[in-house]
Amino acid sequence: MIKRIIIENGAFAVLNAQSGQTTCKGTMVIENDRIVHLGESLPAQYDTSDAERINGKGLFFLPGLINTHGHAAMSLLRGYGDDMVLQTWLQEKMWPMEAKFTARDVYWGTALSVVEMLKGGTTTFVDMYDHMDEVAKVCEQSGIRGCLMRGAIGLCPEDVQDAKLNEAVQFAKDWNGKANGRITTVLAPHAPYTCPPAFIEKFVQAAHDLDLPLHTHMSETKAEVEQNVKDYGLRPVAHLEKLGFFSRPSFIAHGVHLTDEEIATLARYNVAVSHNPGSNLKLASGVARVPELLRAGVVVSLGTDGPASNNNLDMFEEMRLAALIHKGVSGDPTAIPAAEALRMGTVYGAQTISLPDVGLLEVGMKADMVAVDIDQAHFIPHTDLVSHMIYSASAKDVKHVWIDGEQVVKNGECLTLDEERIRHETQQCFEQLLQR
Ligand SMILES: [Zn+2]
Fold first, then answer.
1. What is the pLDDT of residue 85?
2. Which residues of the chain have a pLDDT value below 50?
3. What residues have CB less than 8 Å from 58, skipping those under 6 apart?
4. Interval between CA 303 and ligand 1 midpoint (Å)
5. Ion ligand 1, residues whose Cβ is below 5 A away
6. 60: CA distance to ligand 1 center in Å?
7. In the beta sheet, which residues pair with residue 122?
8. Are the beta carbons of 344 and 322 closer than 8 angstroms?
9. What is the pLDDT of residue 41?
10. Distances, alpha carbon 103 to alpha carbons 99, 107, 306, 324, in Å
């Protein structure tokens, strides 16, 4: 039996229209997991008898938001170390605590983040962490779409490195395509400054063997770039290029410190960049050259990074920051207009992680969709709704969310996970981590 949803009297974000029109008013029809109609009214003689009908009045429908870089379980360390330099923060605060994380901690920490993301309109997230089987389980249970990878730090003896690589490969094989196809997997050496070249090369080889994409942190801080030059005689882009990293479909997180030549190299290899403005600002890493990247044809999407360096998972905030900081830095108010910021949070995210059928509200696309309550003071008058999403909205304005045509958030409540229990368990996990 076909499951049908009909949304009437709605306003829908249109992000790739040639006309420049960014909103379409009318009716959407979803059959099972796909959008099958979007127009002024229902198709003639459409059988509505067994359909769920939703009145879209007062709602603005967006493609589900796509968070292209993060470490969800780090929500357990939210607020545990703030206002610190990246290396000190990692070495003195994050890494010692993370070394004590058990599978149980990762499960609850991830669940906490996924509740927050779903309620805030994020329908797909990228996660690089350890104990990834737990993250995959949360994807299965919550209905969220996940692009998952076991991140591996190679600052350890070779046998330990190999064990991590094997774990990453096994995870990628076990979970790719699972949860009704909502899970895809990637291989991810953590960063050039935490992984020796030979270790990165092993990941590149494995990605070739398994036909998987690659992801890593790159050029997040100036110090890290300078260290790379000292250690290997090359800046990180040339270094990764030499190791064959870009011979695979790949995307990098941050890319804050890039030269014109490096931007050209990323464009040539179709390497996408996950821009994490909130995290970069908080850690004072700098401001990525996003307008230049976009002009060079690089796909730039948005990520929150881990909840300990942000400290929330509100993708509306990342879109707003992306739209604002590049105006401020460049002195050009036309840098990153609202519709472009919304594309960075949606369709460019889908392109970053190679998902061809999510990220746009169009016939044939997956029904991953967010309904924002626009009958609120900060959205009146209803002028340019796309502009409102970037300059006025926050995660708290999300009313309903669907993924694969299944409703996962209704009237602001997560239907698939038990939020009250998750909040209780994660508080316990944190307190136990302090004792351990
Ligand atoms: Zn990160």
1. 87
2. none
3. 373, 374, 375
4. 9
5. 305
6. 31
7. 65
8. yes
9. 93
10. 11, 6, 17, 38
pLDDT at site 21: 83
Q: Which residue positions form the known binding site?
A: 69, 71, 98, 150, 190, 217, 220, 305
> What local confidence, expressed as pLDDT, does residue 115 receive?
98
Query: What is the pLDDT at residue 409?
Result: 98
Answer whether 129's CB lies under 8 Å from 106's CB.
yes
Phi (first) and psi of residue 182, to 5 degrees: -75, -20
Contact 168, 177 (CB under 8 A): no
324 phi and psi angles, rounded to 5 deg = -90, -45
For residue 16, the model assigns a pLDDT of 84
Structure tokens at 210: 């398994």
Phi, psi of 56 (to 5 degrees): -85, 5
Long-range CB contacts (< 8 A, 24+ apart) of 331-340? Answer: 332/291, 335/291, 336/290, 336/291, 336/294, 338/384, 338/386, 338/387, 338/389, 338/390, 338/391, 339/15, 339/22, 339/386, 340/294
And the tokens for 77?
A: 């360390």
Residues 6+ apart with CB under 8 A from 300: 272, 273, 274, 275, 290, 293, 294, 344, 348
